[in-house]
Specification:
By secondary structure, this protein is of the alpha+beta class. It has one helix and seven strands; from the N terminus they run E-E-E-E-E-E-E-H.
C-alpha cells in the first residue's frame, strides 16, 4: 500500500488535506547577533520520509533580530500539472543492435530513485488502462446499428 494518496483521490475531500494526502513542514528560526541564511536543513517534517531533496537550498536571509516562523504543506502531484512534481530530469529510450534490445535511461532529480520512478509510471499506466477498459465496457451501443 502507498504511504500517501493524491489529494483528489483522498477520502478526506478537504482542501487542506489530511495526514493521508499531505505532510506538514515547519520552520521556526531567528538571527541573533549576525545575519543568518536560513536553508531547507532547518525545515522540520512531521514525517521522516518526507524531506527536502537538498539540505542546502536557501530560503531567506535574516538580519540580526529578525525571526521567521511558518508552516507549509507538501503534497503529491503530477509533472503534467507542474514541473515541481517531475521526478525525472531526463528519460531516453535507445534501441540496441539486436532487435529485442531496448535500453531505458532515467535520470532522477533525487526526489525518487530511477526504480521508484519506473514503478510509479507503470502503476499509473495500469490505472489508466483499467479506467479506459471500464469506460469502454460502460458504453451503450444503440440497437439500430
Amino acid at each position: 500500500m502507498k504511504k500517501f494518496s493524491l489529494p483528489e483521490e483522498c477520502s478526506c475531500k478537504s482542501t487542506l488535506g489530511c495526514t493521508n494526502c499531505r505532510v506538514l513542514l515547519q520552520l521556526d528560526t531567528e538571527a541573533n547577533e549576525k545575519t543568518k541564511t536560513i536553508t531547507t536543513s532547518e525545515l522540520i517534517s512531521e514525517d521522516e520520509f518526507v524531506k527536502p531533496v537538498s539540505q542546502d537550498i536557501p530560503i531567506i536571509v535574516l538580519a540580526p533580530g529578525q525571526k521567521l516562523k511558518f508552516e507549509a504543506y507538501a503534497r503529491l502531484g503530477f509533472g503534467r500539472d507542474h514541473a515541481k512534481w517531475q521526478p525525472a530530469t531526463i528519460a531516453v529510450v535507445k534501441y540496441g543492435e539486436n532487435e529485442n534490445e531496448i535500453f531505458l535511461t532515467v535520470e532522477s532529480n533525487g526526489a525518487l530513485t530511477a526504480e521508484e520512478i519506473i514503478i510509479a509510471a507503470i502503476e499509473q499506466l495500469n490505472k489508466s488502462i483499467k479506467d479506459f477498459g471500464e469506460t469502454i465496457n460502460a458504453l451503450q451501443i444503440p440497437n439500430n446499428l
